[in-house]
Specification:
Number of helices: 7
Helix content: 25-40%
Shape: globular
InterPro entries: Flavodoxin_fold (IPR003680), Flavoprotein-like_sf (IPR029039), NAD(P)H_dehydrogenase_qn (IPR051545)
Strand order of the largest sheet: 2-1-3-6-7
Strand content: 15-25%
Oligomer: single chain
Structural class: alpha/beta
Keywords: Oxidoreductase
Family: Belongs to the NAD(P)H dehydrogenase (quinone) family.
Protein name: NAD(P)H dehydrogenase
Pfam families: Flavodoxin_2
Largest sheet: 5 strands, parallel
Distance between the termini: 9 Å
């Protein structure tokens, strides 16, 4: 199953256009997929004291956390669709990772004496699709490349994800309609198997 984790509040955004074209392509290919729409679900990315108290027990007070973790455990492919804000992922997506990725055997990860062991080894492919005001080359070479160096190479790898790829549509603010359309035509379902 393909799991799309979508993180944008505005349904007229380019991220939303990416979501729509990916849904169309997956449906046309008869690929089964589920969507986590963090804003539409009104997911609360903020820990409460009670929620944090339950963290090391692998428990939660939030039914969305339980639902989301179960979807992550069932997925063989995960597609993140998110903007790149202030040199990183939005707080909503960071809160998703903080709250949903529960410590404990059979959950998302376990902590050993030598580090974190990922339990989500069912995720064989992961795609992180971002949009940014900055050009992609500027993110890579001058802003520290946080998506690749931290989110993909550290966080997702620690969770057990394998074969992770990052694709960014940079310079979104001043991009032409033609450039946006051309980019969307490249988001075919074959990339997401």
């Amino acid at each position: 199953m393909i799991l799309i984790i979508y993180c944008h509040p505005y349904d007229q955004s380019f991220n939303h256009a990416e979501l729509e074209i990916i849904k169309e392509n997956l449906s046309a290919a008869h690929q089964k997929y589920e969507i986590i729409d963090l804003y539409a679900d009104q997911f609360n990315p903020v820990y409460s004291k009670e929620e944090l108290r339950l963290y090391h027990q692998g428990q939660t007070t939030d039914p969305l956390v339980t639902k989301y973790l179960k979807l992550c455990q069932q997925a063989d492919t995960v597609i993140f669709i998110t903007p790149y804000w202030w040199n990183d992922i939005p707080g909503m997506l960071k809160g998703f990772i903080d709250k949903v990725m529960k410590e404990g055997e059979g959950l998302s990860h376990t902590v050993t004496k030598i580090g974190v062991k990922g339990e989500l080894t069912n995720v064989k492919h992961c795609y992180v699709l971002t949009t940014s005001t900055s050009p992609t080359w500027y993110i890579r070479f001058f802003l520290g490349n946080a998506i690749k160096k931290i989110l993909i190479n550290k966080t997702l790898r620690q969770l057990g994800f394998r074969h992770c790829y990052w694709q960014n549509f940079g310079g979104i603010t001043n991009s032409s309609l033609e450039r946006r359309r051309k980019y969307l035509t490249k988001l075919y379902f074959q990339h997401f198997r």
